[in-house]
């Protein structure tokens, strides 16, 4: 409910009220105008004045105008996501912005879950995401591509806005549950090329979705099974692509860039991240000539290779090789593409290191005990000559006859030095 009130200092009982408005619905001649169910018909400028009851000719000045704007459509907040691309260990921050922000809004945060039957998404409330006072929400530990939505509410009873448009945070890391492959396997393509994007994983239903450079979301309209076919690629196909399964899984995301210069080169670079330590080759290609020589290669706008070779080969990729790459041929430059490097920690090495630490500790303690026993036997020995060899014999005799239940290093001792005792 909206209330527009006219107040006159000095008391209300002596005055009648007069309203002036350009709205379709006129206000009554009372000090309050209550709008119980607002619509666009109530929009307009409102002002009032008082007329004394005892002398109708005596009036106040007109008040200042108040503008009331009522929209028949619910407002829709705008959601922003930062960062757009995930990096290991990074948090994701969501911000929900309401048009004409004011105090009193509560915010609701949702995860977008693919719903292939409705060709849209359903929304699941995030943990502690109901009615927060803050217009931001932080997500920790996000590792895969995901979509998010927000909406706002205020008042009693609470009035809710529409849901925002979904916004996505993308992961380039390929995981086993769902993945997207591109053929030809490169980021950049010439206009009119044919490109196919195939979803892989243990699911029967798929759709390929894209987010254009202007943020518009759309779904591939030519799906054959789990493959999206683009027979004639255009500049409008430059976008981020990913797969969504009927079970709610998201694949890794890939960038597709379409060359807008028909005579210019493209950079041939991998679509997915390159694993640290692996080798990779980047090359430059023309529509009419696939293999080129005398190509300049740039990393983050810095020239890194300028010779007769037509390929940039990195034999063992490291994290420092990550970044933007582009090539130049005959004075024409390709677009630049990001090459991501995936750093992996060997699960076998990391899991076995505590075992080897324990083995080393036990062996070290055992060796110290053996040396102490050897020293003790030597000091108790009655040998006067060849002291060291005598000590060894005494010690072996002691171990053999008194500690035959000890099996540590038994094979080594029996095979290599038992002959010394009995020869």
UniProtKB/TrEMBL annotation:
<dbReference type="Pfam" id="PF13895">
    <property type="entry name" value="Ig_2"/>
</dbReference>
<dbReference type="InterPro" id="IPR050488">
    <property type="entry name" value="Ig_Fc_receptor"/>
</dbReference>
<dbReference type="GO" id="GO:0006955">
    <property type="term" value="P:immune response"/>
</dbReference>
<dbReference type="GO" id="GO:0007166">
    <property type="term" value="P:cell surface receptor signaling pathway"/>
</dbReference>
<dbReference type="InterPro" id="IPR007110">
    <property type="entry name" value="Ig-like_dom"/>
</dbReference>
<keyword id="KW-1133">Transmembrane helix</keyword>
<feature type="domain" description="Ig-like">
    <location>
        <begin position="1"/>
        <end position="67"/>
    </location>
</feature>
<protein>
    <recommendedName>
        <fullName>Ig-like domain-containing protein</fullName>
    </recommendedName>
</protein>
<dbReference type="InterPro" id="IPR036179">
    <property type="entry name" value="Ig-like_dom_sf"/>
</dbReference>
<keyword id="KW-0732">Signal</keyword>
<feature type="domain" description="Ig-like">
    <location>
        <begin position="75"/>
        <end position="152"/>
    </location>
</feature>
<dbReference type="InterPro" id="IPR003598">
    <property type="entry name" value="Ig_sub2"/>
</dbReference>
<dbReference type="InterPro" id="IPR003599">
    <property type="entry name" value="Ig_sub"/>
</dbReference>
<feature type="transmembrane region" description="Helical">
    <location>
        <begin position="355"/>
        <end position="376"/>
    </location>
</feature>
<dbReference type="GO" id="GO:0004888">
    <property type="term" value="F:transmembrane signaling receptor activity"/>
</dbReference>
<keyword id="KW-0812">Transmembrane</keyword>
<keyword id="KW-0472">Membrane</keyword>
<keyword id="KW-1015">Disulfide bond</keyword>
<dbReference type="InterPro" id="IPR013783">
    <property type="entry name" value="Ig-like_fold"/>
</dbReference>
<feature type="domain" description="Ig-like">
    <location>
        <begin position="265"/>
        <end position="346"/>
    </location>
</feature>
<dbReference type="GO" id="GO:0009897">
    <property type="term" value="C:external side of plasma membrane"/>
</dbReference>
